[in-house]
Amino acid sequence: NLQGKKESYLSNLFEGKSMKFDEFIYNQPDMSVLSDKLKNLIQNFKNSSSFEEQDQVLSKINELRKHFETMSNIAFVRYTKNTFDKYFEQQQNYFDEINPIYENMIGEFYKALLQTKFKPQLQKKYGNQIFNIANARIKTTSSEVLDELKLENKLTSEYRKILSQAKIPFDKKENTLSQMVYYFYSQDRSIRKSSNKAYWDFFEKHSDQFSSIYDKLVKTRTSIAKKLGFNNFIELAYFRLNRTDYNSDDVRIYRDEVKKYIVPLSQKIYEKQKKRLGLEKLNYYDEPIFYKSGNPIPEGSSKDLLEKAKKMYDELSAETSDFYRYMLCNDLLDVESRAGKAPIGYCTFISDYRSPFIFANFNGTIGDVGVLTHEAGHAFQVFNCQDHFFPEYYFPTYEAAEIYSMSMQFFTYPWIKLFFGDKKEKYFYQHISSAINSIPYGVSVDEFQHFVYENPSCPSLERNKKWIEIIKKYNPHTDYSENPDLEKGISWYRQTHIFEVPFYYIDYTLAQICAIQFWIKMERDKKSCWKDYLNICKIGGSKSFLEILKEGNLESPFKLSCMKNVSIFLQDYIDSIDDLKIDF
Question: How far separated are the first and last CA of the chain, in Å rounded?
């Protein structure tokens, strides 16, 4: 597939210059030095007598910012790789303290940017999105709330540490949270039930800690919002997420559309699953097991899966080949689950080294291929944006970023046989069914957070009751009757986004609707579809969410016809599959 290619980006740019992640140099930033440099540069920016002069100063500001953010990201990756590492735990604590100071300094830069007399020239060269971002971000911080911002960071790190250091006794050994998920997919119902009990016992045991941390977070975030002039934290959160072209009213209407069109389809999928499994009742611990014959399991070790992905990305396109080989060559994927490793998945970007980094926790389930292709979608997008001038343009806003990851999962469908052999049809049906089922859950998380921050004084017990009410609104089949702890409403404790990045979850559902549109287009014209995808990958964060959709020839999920049209396609697909036939 690669023969006749004029020039390999990989060999041209990186051959002989590669550096593995463990070789990346880390130095703790000196905030006093950084502060002085930034202040001087911002003043020079203000005093520039010409656009050319100001543009040169802007370049120096961005280089300084990129270096600081490189150190912050390296520290975060190394800490999440091993939360028992005392040095990088200290470094993470250090960044929890200094990040609010840094963000406040960047706020001063944004103010200068918005006030520059050379704005038309800057807009022409770099686009208007940086000004949209600046306008949103100056509303999110001030020196008056620095101490509370530090506390917010400290509390989220405390929450993450509890999860990362979980040791759950099961199957005659101690397991991490990620490792416990393996047992959820057992064909033996008793193992599913007992492993879930052990898993949720951990959350019940620490429920007072989780509840206390969240109480403090809600109180702190509400206080920050009030001091910054907002009515509540919801308004502030939307600005933090750079949501510049839609608001909470749009999201509320979108949730209603999900309830109308997606929830009935999701319930149909669960009903079919119950019949396939031969159960009178689908309990919460039954939901992960999709087939009576067992879920498809990827063939081979973690190393084997990474190697198979190389063949897949070689054949998908020249661009994905160069990207993925660079990732492997430089050890930019950490996918093994182990003690002390944070039970999360993410992709970040180390700008000084022009390198994405993928972090995951493989556990021997179908999810391993899902998370690999998902995070590779993020990494591929930012790999195509490494030359953007502004750090803000490396990644787009969250809901746009998730389009790249979720769409990549559909683009890799033709190579799924590499991972699952003759079980590929089982993978396809489970993947799309799970994608559909994730949308009602996603809007549940969003509606819950709106309730919480509209009622910040709500006691924790009432908050948990509200969670159960919302879950059953969008997932009416949910049955926790065999687990009193879950009936209390504690299952949201494991949803890290609620604690760490409030209101970042509806983004997954918005992106899923867009990714499904790519899948629909792929069925009709794969070449044109890939062209649209590659185009928006290169745009990165230089445009807003709705602008990116326009560039990708995608319909906005906020448009009332969108959900109906997508649901019709999905309904036809689900009806076309003989799910009993593929359960072998």
Answer: 34
